[in-house]
Fold:
Amino acid sequence: MFDQSQLMKGTLEGCILKVIAAETTYGYEIMEKLAQHGFGDIREGTIYPLLVRLEKKEWITSEVRPSPLGPSRKYYSITPTGREILASFAACWEAISRAVENIMKLEEKHGE
Amino acid sequence: MVNRLKKLRKENNEKDKLLSQENRRLMTDMVVYLRSSNLCDYDIEAIRRELFGMIYEAQLRGETADQAIGENYKGFCDELMESGRQKSFYEKAMEWAYVLVAGLGSLFIVEAVFSGVLYGAFFHGGFTITITLGFAVSALLIVFGAWAVYGYITRYSFKLPGKGLSRYRIFFLIGFVLYFSGTIGVRMLMDDIRLFQVNVFISLAVFAAAYLIVKGFGDRASSCRE
Structure:
C-alpha cells in the first residue's frame, strides 16, 4: 500500500495557505474545509503544527477572538509574503501534477 | 514582561479545570513532554493555551482528544517542538544558573541546619561552617542528578504513567537507587577532606542575592518575545 503521508506532507502547507487566503479562519474550520474537499483523514492535530510553522515563517498572521463555544480562538489571515508563496506553490503544483499525469498515462510493456 | 509568563500560566491552570479528567491527564502529559524540549517557557504556555482550546472544543462537541489531535500524541508534540521558537544560548545559560544557585543554596541550608551550625550560631555564637570535599561533590551530584531525573520524567512523560512496572519505570528506579547510593558513598568517603570555612549568614545572604539576580534575569529570558 502506497504511503500517502509523504505526498500529503508536501502539499498540505500550500492547501492550508489557499484555505486561509480564501477567508480569515481558524484551525477546526480549516480542517473541515480540507476534509470537505477530499482530505478525508485529517485532524486538527495535523493542521496545528503546520499553522505554527506557517506563522513562524510569517506567511500567515493570527489574532485571538472570542468564540461562541467558550475558549478564545486563533484566527489566521494570509500575509503578502504568504500570497507570493501560495502563487509559487500553485505554479509548482500545476507543473508537477501535469508531469505525474503524463507519466501515469505511460503504457506498460510486458514480456519484452 | 516578567509577569507575562506567570499571568499566562495562571490562566492556563484555571482553564485546565474545565477539562475532563482524561483530557486533563493528556494535557499534563503533553505539556510535561514539551518541557523536555528546547522551546522557551512562554511559547510552551502559548501552545498549552491553544491545545486547551482544541481539546476543550472537542470535548464540548462530544469528541475525544484522539479525534481532535490523533492518537500519536508524542509525534504531535515532536512536530510542535520542531516548529516552535528554540531557547537562545542566553536563555539556556540562565536556566542552568538558576538550577545551580537554587539547588546548591537549598543544599547549603540543609547542611547548615543538620550540621548544627545554625543552632550553634544562635545559642553559642559560632558563625562558621566547614565546607568539605564530600559536601561539595555530593551537592553537585545531587543537583545534576535532580536535573537528570527532571529530564528523564519529561522525556518519557507518555511512557511513565500507567499501572505496572514498565521498563522505563524499572530503569528509572534502578538508576535512581544506584545514583543515590553512589552520592551517599562519595559524601562518606570525602567528608574528612576540609576545603574551607565560611560565615554561614554571609553565605546565606550571598546565595539569596545570587538567587534573586538569576531569577530576575531568568524570568525576563523565559518570558521571551511574542
In short: Strands of chain A lie at 25-26, 60-65, 73-78. The helical segments of chain A are 5-22, 27-36, 44-56, 80-104. Chain A has four helices and three strands. The two ends of chain A are 27 Å apart (CA to CA).
